[in-house]
Specification:
Blueprint (H helix, E strand, L loop, with lengths): L25 H15 L4 E6 L5 H10 L5 E6 L6 H12 L8 H17 L3 E6 L7 H10 L11 E6 L2 H6 L5 H5 L1 E7 L4 H15 L9 H11 L3 H17 L7 H13 L40 H51 L29 H10 L11
Parallel strand pairs: 1-4, 1-5, 2-3, 3-4
Length: 408
Amino acid sequence: MYERFYRLRERPFALTPDPDYLYPSRVHQEALNYLRYGIESHAGFIVITGAIGSGKTTLLQTLLRGLDNRTTVARLMNTLLDPRELVESAMIDFGIDPAGASKPAMLKKLGEFLVAERSAGRLVLLVIDEAQNLSLPALEEIRMLSNLETEKSKLLQIILIGQPDLRDKLDRPELEQLRQRITVSYHLEALDADETARYINHRLARAAIGAPIEFSRAVTDRIHARSGGVPRLINVISDAALVFGYGEERAVIDEPLVEEVIADLDATGVLGPRSNPNRHASVVPAEPAPAPAPAPDRPIAAAPPPTAADDALRRELAAVAARESALKQREHEIAAREREIAEQKRVLAEQYRLLNTQAGQPANPSWPPTYVRSASLQPREPKRRAGFWRRMKKTILGSPEPVLEDSL
């Protein structure tokens, strides 16, 4: 699209989690260090949280790319699973076939696999992305999996990656045992204005073929103000700015252009509402909401008397309802009349077909019928007048027999 115009190898602000474009901001570098420490120290549970679009998946991809071949990894992306499905998904990703096995048999197979991997000197890692969607029973099942251990260390390390409301779930009293096994935990904060500027120009430099294009500080500050420092929204705005600049053949992305881009993205709803990095509303509730307790019996307070404005509004609503009812009735009447006309047309066509059939004529199903002149109304051929000698002979002889003129 705009790559050749701006001398870029590829789009620098694509939304795919490409580790090549990870900007080592303070928070991302710290999170990566926490992950590496947790894995190298054979910690129990590692929890990394961050807002939507904060770069959790890119961070995870960077970590997995840096692992050696002595680490066996299973990664779960779909977390809308019950406890048994969770165990089955993990086994499938490890390369174990759980088909037809009961849950005890599956756990036995998984345990034997973990022991074999440890004997071969390999570390086994289970990574669960979007962990905030896990139900409480599924989280408890994960805790039970962590019980697979030897006298010296855990056979299975588990990393939970999720949004901020994952921490709310882990704070529930039912998950006290799981929470106590978390040894490494980190939360990704949003980028500040300085980091946003460096993040944008870092990506532009990574994708550049020659001298990289740069966004001015005024442009990056405006992008930061609208995105809130969330990397995914920064990418959306920056990519759209390059598209607009290419369309208008602008070699420099300036502040008025970015203002136009942001206004267009807001008008079309691409950016959505202002992001809240500390959102705590879970996508999937941890458990069904309890039914509200019945209110105690209390005397019902009398409603205040209606005002004149209430009466006027009530009358207006009643008039609108009456008009809508009349329109619906009229539509029903028109539809009934159209059906009646269609039926009359069909009956007339059938009667015409029967009349033609009785008269020995081929039926003509078309309507209206084509007009056919009666035989009695067809023009007659003029009679040929008798010759002179024929009339003379008929007068003299009175012969009624027809006589050919050629015989005279």
